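Anyone? Bumping this.
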Amino acid sequence: MTTTPTQPRAARRPTTRDLLTRADPRRRWTDRIMHVVITSAFLVALVPLVSVIWTVVSNGVVRMSPYFLSVSMRGVYGGIDAGGIYHAILGTLLITGLATLISVPVGLMTAIYLVEYGRGPLARAVTFFVDVMTGIPSIVAGLFAYSLFALFLGPGVRLGAVGSVALSVLMIPVVVRSSEEMLRLVPNELREASYALGVPKWLTIIKVVLRTSVAGIITGVMLSVARVIGETAPLLIVAGVIDSINTNLFEGRMMTLPVYVFRQYSQGLVPCSPEAVDCIATINYDRAWGAALALIVIVMLLNLVARLIARYFAPKTGH
Amino acid sequence: MSSTDQQPARPAPPTGLRGLVERRTSRDLAGRLFSATATGAGALILVTLAAVAVFLVVRAWPAMTTPAEELADAISWIPEGSTLLGYVGPLVFGTLLAAVLALALAVPVATGIALFISHYAPRRLASPLGYVVDLLAAIPSVIYGLWGGLWLAPRLLPAWQWLADNLGFIPLFREPASTPPRVIMTVGVVLAVMILPIITAVAREVFLQTPRLHEEAALALGATRWEMVRMAVIPFGRSGLISAAMLGLGRALGETMAVFMILSPGFTYSFELLQAGQHQTIAANIANQFAEANPLGVSALIATGLALFVITLAVNTAARWVVARRKDFSGAN
Amino acid sequence: MAQRIDLKDLNVYYGSFLAVADVSMTIEPRSVTAFIGPSGCGKSTLLRTLNRMHEVIPGARVGGTVEMDGVDLYGSDVDAVAVRRQIGMVFQRPNPFPTMSIAENVLAGVRLNNSRIGKDEASELVERSLQGANLWNEVKDRLDRPGSSLSGGQQQRLCIARAIAVKPQVLLMDEPCSALDPISTLAIEDLIADLRSEYTIVIVTHNMQQAARVSDRTGFFNIAGTGKPGKLIEMDDTRTMFSTPSEQATEDYISGRFG
């Protein structure tokens, strides 16, 4: 009433229609502007998402071919139209595979401890430090793995297995968190029903609790794999860079997809002489984009499959 | 339910008291083994974390105890006459600057996205939209580095030049903007994109928890939607938003590849955001120097890594503390 | 200040589900109108359509007209925000803003329209509103304490003070005492009796004694069964409704034979 400026002063009192129809224009405009601002914040976030995916796909398909996927970089030099990511894919699978083998038992058992056994100060400490571990920068995990192995194998150690240990440090807390969440979803009635039948606690956990939550746990593990499979920094410093195929995690350097992307990127443009026929100036960038495409496809597939598992198998836990 | 399925598969119970006792002890053993394994796994987490700290300190020790003169002699990239602390200082500064820049860019946008998902978009779209934002978190950092270095940086150049031309009188934007824009401002933008999902996810959850009662109270007083958000949603979510921002900060501090692949490094305490060759972060510096470093150099790098570890630890712990404190309060009403 | 409200052929839908059917009634100014009836009969839903608060619920919509002083609240030029400004609401559970002090809670609605309210004017308004809500004497020494520090009944009176601070025409109350103890309930009922002289009040209640004690007119709502819409069975002076209702269903409900 005091804020209807169009109202002539000392005139009749505002009618009911005035009161119900005259919104304060300033407030109405603020509301509309904030609506636009908030909606555009969301649209702004879509810009990088769409542009990352678009640039990776459109630049990546240039080199993507069965040849690119099936050869290593051995003997590839300069701007020649050759070379692929086979060795990097192999290295990524091996290193991530070993990291998963380490992380899943430790992570799952820790989650079981926290949900089924954990009481008192140890459980509180574990919960707290799992949170702390979630925040360890990946490069610090790499330094840790390096320091650990350097203690036994001397300085300058570069092994695939060291990379796996570094990735495990990053992966374990994620596995613990997601498994813990899933185990807590299992209703206590199920456990009690099992105890009432005389089944001991550990068998109840294995046969009832884990069985009920297995889909959720697998989803969590796959998402954690998807998270560490793209890790670059720790692998760059502990697994090193190599051009040829290495299938032994415990000997010699090992290439991985993310490090390959970085390696090709950092080599930059090739100075091609004008008369050279077999020289592509942007070959390194092209390979980087190609490898990035392969990496993003792997990560997205893992995410997708994980979510599908969660969707199609989860209802079984509820019935 | 599934426990009843198990019933037929169980072995026939042994008869007599003796059988019962035997069965008990063998099961007790398995049970004890199982619980010991579980407890051991939990303890392993503590051991691992302690080992991270101890190994970093042990490895960093040589560099921390070597006199400055010797250190500078032995390590090519430590300038003459500089101490280890003098070397770490600009790196810590660069790390904080990049992270704070990213945070300043990401928090308003993430708040907007979270509000859009929680209070503006139709309810049934909330979870698909949240998933779209989560996709940003799934993209590996090296791809952000590649994208930032090859695609985004050239496109940001005009914006930075405009800033330098028009706001160059502010020291932050001192002209001329470097070309190519391998500057901390570009890094800040890329890092902001990378931490957007985590901040959004936490903020979204908090905003969705706003009690309906408070929202309706505001609306019934004649508040517009935005006024309702300001009266009920934001005050309720403030502490959650703070901890979300700190989690994002922790992530930005430790990010390596995106910085390494974009930033042209330098070791100064400079606030000139558009100048190349002024800043470097701890993580990117480690990735850059590690391969060619001699043993003492590795030790010095690990010392810087230790500093990073401590900083992120402090930030993350503070964030968790805010979250925990908020949990205590939410039961109050 | 108080205005009369006319409902004509009002239908309320949730999506395709008809929740309340064919309600026509007149709500008199400067009086208390009570809505009674069994759970799920649509009384609260109907109450919310009187200040368009049902629009907060996804899928809810209205057919028919609700006129205040001859102006249709659902007319195309009417602003929902302005409607709620004129028709205040008090909810089932007290809901003061937890981050605001007692005084700020009272001023919350006023500040929306007049953000530069003077300090003297503000404190005068706080006192007047809290006195109007019979709360002033209990809180005058701690106006800067958080609203959530009060007891449930005090919080509810704070919410009433917050609603009357913006000087609405009509006050809607959705079971305002159902979360309160008997003594707090009594305090609210006394307050309703005081407010009657200035406001048009509509109260939804489960408690028939309360309806009999506080209201001038009573409307009885009922549903024929689950999935059927709620209907206004009859509406009359409260005294008549509780002594000689014309419908059998009303008499059954009031005498406690069902519901």
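Late reply, but here is one note on the structure posted above: Chain B touches chain A through 97 residues (CB under 8 Å).
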